[in-house]
Amino acid sequence: MRADQILHPTEAGLYCPPGDFFIDPVRPVARALITHGHGDHARAGHGAVMATRQTLDIMAIRYGEDFAAETQVADGPVRVGDTTVSFHPAGHILGSAQIAVQPVKGPRIVVSGDYCCRPNPVCAPYEPVPCDIFVTEATFGLPVFRHPDPMAEMSRLIASMDEFPDRPHLIGAYALGKAQRLIALARQAGIEGPIAIHGALQRLCDYHVEQGIDLGELIPATADRVPAQLVIAPPSAFASPWVQRFADPVIGFASGWMQVRARARQRGVELPLVISDHVDWPQVTAAISHLAPSEVWITHGAEDGLLRWCELEGIPARPLRLVGYEDEPE
């Protein structure tokens, strides 16, 4: 069986005919396999959803318990139609997984979803999965993207807090994954006092704590006077009246995109923190080199840059041109 008969792009997303399922479909389908809980990959309204236990829990928190007609926890290799599928840690956010698809006859395909090879204190580490075809994201798939050590970025945050002790530090971070990682990194860096969080982060932070992740003392950033110098909020909060309760704040944003200074200026970010939950250029090229697949399929992001690198390395590759994927929607 040819690879494109096992998995190919459609308007709804990646479709597997021998298993009759979609991976991270962008519209409601009969059967969906979901890599992780971010809203551009995990949508409500499918007939049946298979994902890790944590991803299913996160989808229930975000969309309600009835987000799908039926759900199934991905636990070990599972037979789906004429394929066997298995889920492996992606290192992106809590519950994130790569999905390996093995047909009865034909090449093994691993769909990485969003993944990160750096250690992340709030999720299981990325696991290289041997495969014939590797489907990789290219969010930061250009040589310019070389993300610094996250702890070095935390040192910059602490230095700013020390320099401006009377100014609250409001840091924008996506509600799922980035906010919790930022809090955990702050604790690792030695920030011991209370950290204030926007109400939109509360339930997801609670779930991380329920899963055994220590985030320390968190307090709501709802009072007129918030007794914490560090405040974490989703990016959408910075365009709302909520932000006006803070006098002369230092505005920061934690994202891999903060390496692009023009983006930081456009957002009015005084303290850009380059902290990403995606592979950067050295990580994605190292991951491909380590796996040594016979072919690479490239999804959303800078597909042309990674396609050119594969060509120079003698690795057959093609872009999938999938649509509907972006940074975590707010």
UniProtKB/TrEMBL annotation:
Domain of life: Bacteria
GO MF, any single term: exonuclease activity
Enzyme Commission identifier(s): 3.1.-.-
SUPFAM superfamilies: Metallo-hydrolase/oxidoreductase (SSF56281)
Keywords annotated in UniProt: Exonuclease, Hydrolase, Ligase, Nuclease
PANTHER family referenced in this protein's UniProt entry, alphabetically: BLL1145 PROTEIN, CLEAVAGE AND POLYADENYLATION SPECIFICITY FACTOR FAMILY MEMBER
Listed NCBIfam families: Xnuc_lig_assoc
Record protein name field: Ligase-associated DNA damage response exonuclease
Native organism: Paracoccus maritimus
